[in-house]
Fold this sequence. Notes:
Layout: E1 8-13, H1 16-27, H2 41-47, E2 56-59, E3 68-73, E4 86-88, H3 96-110, E5 116-117, E6 121-122, E7 127-132, E8 138-141
Parallel strand pairs: 1-3, 4-8
Antiparallel strand pairs: 2-3, 5-7, 6-7, 7-8
Amino acid sequence: MSAIKRFQVTFDCASPERLARFWCEVLGYVVPPPPEGFATWDDFNSSLPHEERDSWFACSDPSGVGPRLYFQRVPEGKVVKNRVHLDVRVGTGLVGEERLAVLEAECARLIPLGAVHVQTLYDGHDACIPMQDIEGNEFCID
């Protein structure tokens, strides 16, 4: 039996730092300290060749449990639906109106951050709220 592997989730995007900071707010993640020898990420970024500046950014779970999120700049924009998306699990163990209320409250918290509410799926027992992040990537409040 093999050991469980650590992994990161990588996002192709237009603005890595902006998208990383959005997901920090969504998930309670943090931006790690800049590389050794640099007081700030801006200092580090300024040290790079012009074509490499603002090309990536990352954030991580401060508890060390969740995966690191890595954001890399790509030249092309988002064209089709994501084949993989994140489910932000805020209603685990809840059902019915109680579950729906928790999901709707989280949706309301994320909209001012730039998230887009796509629809609310509710069958009287289970609920899910598909959304989009600030670059149009799909995710669900679950």
